[in-house]
Amino acid sequence: MGSFSDGMLNEWPTSHNVFSAPITVHQDRDKVGRPAANHVRYMMFYQLDAEKLRSGDVLLEAGSGLISEAIKIADRGAFSHAFLYVGMSMIMEADEGVRMLMASRVITDSPDKFLVLRHPDYEQMINNPEWGKFTNSLMFWLLQPEANKDYNWRGMFGTKLPFLNGTKGTFFCSQLVAEGYRRARIHLFRAEIPPERVTPNMFDSANCLLKPVAGCFTALPDRSWIAEFGQNRYDVMKEEPVPLAHITHERAKEIVAAFGPRVDELTRRINKKQHIASVQDLYLTLTFPDLPEADQISDELVEFMERRFPAAERLNFIELCKRSFEYGISLKDAEVNALITRTLRRDISATERLVAVIAGQAQMMKAFPPPPLKRRSIHKWLEKKLADAVASEKELLQWRKNALARIPG
After folding, report:
1. What is the largest CA-CA distance in the chain?
2. Which pLDDT score, from 0 to 100, does residue 86 have?
3. Which end of the chain has the smaller Cβ count within 10 Å, N or C?
4. In 8-98, where does DSSP find H-type helix?
5. What is the pLDDT of residue 273?
6. 277-287: buried (b, 16+ CB within 10 Å) or exposed (e) per residue?
7. What residues form DSSP beta bridges with 102?
8. What is the predicted pLDDT for the residue at 39?
9. What separation in angstroms does the CA of 248 have from each of 7, 51, 105, 261, 367?
């Protein structure tokens, strides 16, 4: 059931580009287009470039807040956070919960606050023959079911206080990264360390097999509005005119809170130990053929989804992005056009791969779940939404291609 089952509550390439907010907010040509006559140079900002990354790349970040500084001191290193590039222009990280975001959301005035690390034998070490064709998105497939789960605060403290055990179904940042590699059966360290004991600076140690990769950030145009994106990426998401990424994450948490405890209690009635920590867990548990009240819960979940699914917000965000692109193109500014071109090409490439993923899932959902598991109303609802998503993404893909063709040069 992979990506779309939580993917509708995640962020696809439709959900963010550097034009999603600022151009529609600032209609001042001197701010958005060519520099004004009295132009002063603004602080330069840099964007993580997905075209220079490979699935499985680990990124370390040196934060500057109080919690980040405390982590660096406790971990005896320069970095406070770790996240993973999972392919299809997306990163996955455990920060405010487990999130899947576009890599383009990582914008900074200091690329040296980041360290990109790559396993030298990543492609050769994928020893499952069935995984070979998924090399460029393997981590996406392996970790996507964890999206929207809570942050593992107990586990984070437990890396330094061994008597503390982490909370099941949750992750802290470096634990999530190490778990992806564990599932891929790829060794990260010379002397192996369990994922729940891995800290960010362990990736930057002699025991780690990863090697640094340079040049993974691209300079953005010298414009004042770019600075708005150089803030904490989660603050940026919440402040967008249509904060789709934030809305979808909160909706996922609502669903788990509304249905999770009830389904957990019903699984105990049939002597199964289950803990619903994500929407994905909920969909899968509702396939249990002997789960009491499952048909009723499934119908209630469909009704809940119809009311709370962010369809209108998504359409509004797409229209906002389109208008922003159109405005940017109309400026006929070489630097802005170069940024738009790079963004469109990246999104086209990611969307083409995404459409193939969703189409494959739509086909799989026609026969999901296999016997003796039971197919219920929520699974039929998901099948329809997958089909709708394929059509929507194809339409947006064509719009991007048409927009790219109109840019001079």
Report:
1. 74
2. 94
3. C
4. 22-25, 29-32, 66-75
5. 83
6. bbbbbbbbbbb
7. 90
8. 46
9. 9, 26, 16, 21, 27
- Prior bond to 369 cis, omega within 30? yes
Residue 130 has a pLDDT of 65
Tokens of 281: 């867990």
pLDDT along the chain (409 residues), means of 10: 40 44 34 43 84 95 93 96 94 93 93 96 73 75 91 94 88 97 93 96 97 96 83 88 88 94 96 90 96 97 93 90 90 90 92 88 90 95 93 94 91
Q: Which of 18, 248, 278, 252 is nearest to 146 (CA)?
A: 278
Place of tokens 């061994």: 162
Burial grade of 264 (CB within 10 A; 0-12, 13-18, 19 or more): middle
Calculate ∠ Cα 248-6-288, nearest 5°.
Answer: 135
Residue of 184, 47, 23, 53 whose CA lies nearest to 108: 47
In which order are the strands placed within the sheet that holds 46-48?
107-108, 46-48, 217-219
Q: How far is residue 276's CA from residue 260's CA, in Å, rounded to a whole number?
A: 5
Distance CA 191, CA 291 (A): 43
Q: What are phi and psi of 5, to 5 degrees?
A: -55, -35
Give backbone dihedrals phi and psi of 391, rounded to 5 degrees, phi first.
Answer: -65, -45
User: Residue with structure tokens 């394929």?
Assistant: 390
